[in-house]
Amino acid sequence: MASKDSQNQNPRSLPGFLPRATNPDQNSQEASSNPRKQARQQPGVSQPSSFLPTATLPPGLEYLSQLDLIIIHQQVELLGMILGTETSNKYEIKNSLGQRIYFAVEESICFNRNVCSTLRACTLRITDNSGREVITVNRPLRCNSCWCPCYLQELEIQAPPGTIVGYVAQKWGPFQPKFTIQNANKEDILKIIGPCTTCGCFGDVDFEVKTVDEKVTIGKISKYWSGFVNDVFTNADNFGIHVPADLDVTLKAAMIGACFLFDFMFFEHSLAGL
């Protein structure tokens, strides 16, 4: 049973959220001038309340401030399927209507992809529909083992490119995957806790997004089950990020990076080994 303090804790008062506006007239005017479709309710996921001012957003991330569902679709690489080799990953980032808002391309060395495989160092460049790079995700070569508590996985998030806004860092845990989302000063802002098993056989795999004290769940990152054929014979994965719409866009950008990291760590397999 949750403690009384955890039940009374309001996630809107936590770091990364914009406080609600105190002027009801202003709220009604904004609602009438900016209508939006009501978000689909998700069990255990906080719902949106307000938007961040555009002036405070990194350039190119304005649209993220309106989203409480971000879909990430990995493209099928036919060349990799035919030759049985690892090719650079490509991802489409979409809104809840399936409209593409960003496109991500992996930059890595062929030798690293085929020798280091899922541990490879790489850079993912995320561009908007006009081709402008808005987010850069840097992944160094690091360990990936529950028996090794040091030098674990880490991502650096830049938005815009050249400006560090956060990190995704793996935390040691023998039973469950654990990660933290950090700000530019490497201060913990949110935690991500995965299930004990990530095989995802015939079902979705959910990573819960929690507050630092792990008492409040504010969202989740889901790896959607795409069917037996896709899971076995391709590397194409689909993810959904369910978060409050008023969450800081830099944290949303970090969660997009976290999806890429989860794909590499838990769901990407070598086609050459089939």
UniProtKB/TrEMBL annotation:
Q: Which SUPFAM superfamilies match?
A: Tubby C-terminal domain-like
Task: Tell me which InterPro entries the record gives.
Answer: Scramblase, Tubby-like_C
Q: Where is the composition biased (Polar residues)?
A: 1-12, 23-52
Which Gene Ontology BP terms does the record give? plasma membrane phospholipid scrambling
Q: What's one GO MF term for it?
A: phospholipid scramblase activity
Note whether Lipoprotein occurs among the keywords.
yes
Q: Which metal ions or organic cofactors does this protein require, according to UniProt?
A: Ca(2+)
Residue span of region Disordered: 1-52
Query: Which keywords has UniProt assigned to this entry?
Result: Calcium, Lipoprotein, Palmitate
Instruction: Name a Pfam family for this protein.
Output: Scramblase
Q: Which GO cellular component does the record give, naming just one?
A: plasma membrane
The region annotated as signal peptide is none
Q: What family is reported?
A: Belongs to the phospholipid scramblase family.
Record's function text:
May mediate accelerated ATP-independent bidirectional transbilayer migration of phospholipids upon binding calcium ions that results in a loss of phospholipid asymmetry in the plasma membrane.
Specify the protein name: Phospholipid scramblase
